[in-house]
Please model this.
Amino acid sequence: MQVNLDKTFPIAASGSSAWKFLQDIPGVAGCMPGAEITETIDDSHYKGAVKAKVGPATMAFNGDIEIVAIDSEKRQLHLIGRGQDTKGTSSAEMDLTAWVVDIGNSECELKGEAQVKVTGKAASLGGRMMTQVSDQILNQFGKNFANNVMALGEGEDAEEAREELAEQPKELNGLAFAWSVIVGFLRSLFGGGKSSAG
Amino acid sequence: MATAEEEVSRQDALQGIGCSRKRKEDPRFVQGKGNYVDDVKMPGMLFADMVRSPYAHARIKSINKEKALALPGVHAVLTADDLKPLNLHWMPTLAGDVQAVLADEKVHMQYQEVAVVIADDRYIAADAVDLVEVEYEPLPVLVDPHKALDPDAPILREDAQDKDTVGQGPRKHPNHIFTWEVGDESATDRAFEEAEVTVTQEMYYPRVHPSPLETCGCVASFDKVKGNLTVYITSQAPHVVRTVVTLLSGIPESKVRIISPDIGGGFGNKVGIYPGYVTAIVASIVLGRPVKWIEDRMEHLSTTAWARDYWMTGELAADKDGRIKGLRVGVLADHGAFNSHAQPTKWPAGFFSIVTGSYDIPTAYVKVDGVYTNKSPGGVAYRCSFRVTEAVYLIERTLDVLAQKLGIDKAEIRRRNFVKPEQFPYQTALGWELDSGDYHTALDKVLAAVDYPGLRKEQEEKRAKGELMGIGLVTFTEVVGAGPSKSCDILGVGMFDSAEIRVHPTGSVIARMGTITQGQGHQTTYAQIIASELGLSSEDIQIEEGDTDTAPYGLGTYGSRSTPVGGAATAVAARKIRAKAQKIAAHMMEVSEADLEWDIDRFKVKGVPGQEKTMKEVAWAAYNNVPEGMEMGLEAVDYYDPPNFTYPFGTYLCVVDIDKYTGQVHVRRFYALDDCGTRINPMIIEGQIHGGLTEGFAVAMGQEMPYDEEGNLLGNTLMDYFIPTFVETPHWETDYTVTPSPHHPLGAKGVAESPHVGSIPCFTAAIVDAFSHLGITHMDMPHSSYRVWQQLHELGLDKRT
Model:
């Protein structure tokens, strides 16, 4: 089961500060709801964990993250994450390319292209919602990322961003998340959404 | 002289052949008093659960059991390495291949068994499964069978890579299993070259799963002191299981007892031997305690025997009047990761060569290639005698395509090609001898019952208004009752079946058979056969099956073989008893045997009214007053090796209306006429037909086991897998004709599979017929609303004007 995602997140900060934050791998991982870097092996290899709780089911993925390329000129990052859930019934893989584009007025955009592959029970049971779930996770990610970049700065906006980040739950919040997935799914029925299942 | 009325009442009292006697099984089932494998509880019983692969194709780098073993209540975690010293990490399949019991270095399909955990209860076992750490290295996955034989295709079965054969003839690629050819290729090619008309139709018969109400499971109990092994198991063939267990374990067959208790539906899914059975048995032998293993629904749908997955091309050569001159068929068969198809050993594609159907086809040629893919193994299950469903689907569909091309009515083209009543027994071009049939009568009866010309007229009118209505017609011939031991065996054991009947002194009876009921109602119908043959009331006849310690050896129940083979054995054994009873009766009345005649339930002296002995009286005498030199008692056993298969047939007609905007198919009418020869219990036959039609509806309209490119099985939960309820199921109308089998002692043929085999192409035919005026010749199953809508959309019919 593979999903291709193509996302753009606006950030009210300069491209250079966004690029700076994009290279902070544990920081970027922390933007992913429920995810964290558990071990830094070297500059381009990390171990990470993702935990998601929806209703009574908890899925915890442990995996490896490999930074394939960092291109400062293009302000582009390419990483591959591979993981297996701790129960051994599912696995997930993500190939992500993310880059920062200045759009002037000291604002920028974070753009991302990702292929997410899921196998096992997660695909059998969750396959039909995978596009929506991935989409929601990335939306949350984009929001956190923008807040993190803005928090690097000074002033009112930065303060607000820091506050929002502090309130951010550490785990992927089950019910709220399920709700946003359902809303996203309903929207997609009426022609919204850029992502496409492959 | 007995009055006619008195004779009728004696006849009725027997509740014999032809009586719609109520099922003797039902009182216990409707009261929740059945005894299924999962109801079996034994002192000290442990539970087994499986660690399964999330990957379709991967190398196992390591398995760490430590955390699982540390969990209190866990007794053992077994992997292939633990089974290796016993040489049980692989097991032979019924198709001559081998299958991994627990994955040996590699996994070949998603949900493959990697390790088994044995614990105090099923909850601890499930927790421990989560704690077993398996490290995998994913490998390229092969899902599309069309790519299996590519030079650069990933090699799946490294264990078989260098083998010239995996049990069914030469191979041409490491992913190739067999090539199976039947018929005269050059004569068939010639028929096509010389034909006035030819048609070709490609079609895919999807992978489907019977998903019976009860999943598979067993309780294995090894007695370390006596060295005896007892296994309660969901098996349609308990005696075969016993032989396989002995061959695998070395325990003498006399010390292995296999019990199939009540079974909640089989449909072929419960013929094979599964890794869960083997590991539960091994665990019980190792631990000296009973071990229970029961699948959940996902495990059941993901790993046990499914059906079909045939990519077929049908070609017909004909003259311009639609008379068939030749049939050519090519099949690519996706067998999954192991060739564990349950079928007679020498038949790589089962009885697919019945593909000439009900038609007088002078020459035919069939070629089937089987390949490995990273999907679950199994096959041939699902209410079909070994690929007959595919065969009937192909010929019925292709014949419709020919009719469409020539502009001949679909009923008329069948009539022109039918084997005629006077041609029976009829030799088909592919080697079968059809025993009996009267196809014209069956067709005419159905067409009259539904007012076929009226339906065609209505269809014309609807088409003029832009509405979609379709009429499907199928005139199938089945082959059931495997089978003559000269051509059919399983692991070398001929496919006979058996019955042992004992008449007690007071005239009640116990009878045991080598078959095993799973819903067919054997406890009811076998008693009726004995009642009619012996003149004893079926109420006093006890039928027992499924315990290998008591029942005579038999090959089990599948492929509609119980009545053709087990039923024949029962009749023959009963006749042996009657022959002995006749001698005793003659002795009792001091006349010669030849002076006696049989009358319903008694022997009468010809021409001497009142001189008679009932079978009950004879039974008593059998235990105290037999002729000199005769041994006491009244019992017989018969192992029946059928001289031929039986060939039930039928005509099915389906009328559908299709909503142009939603693609929803409404089955307005379904008329099923079946001819299964002599009818033993009409009510049970009707029940079987209702069940088979409903399963056929399920397959045609919604069931499939789809895999994505990664080899993820996407249809293995009941969220996705279609099981029709009363809400979706159409109303069934049933009818029959009776054309007895000339070689069966009772003239009976099998019936349970006919409605499945016959109805599936009938649904497809009806739906395609609704589109036939628009040039559509075929649509692949399942005919879900979405897929039908796609066809409507493609044709632009869904636009509102």
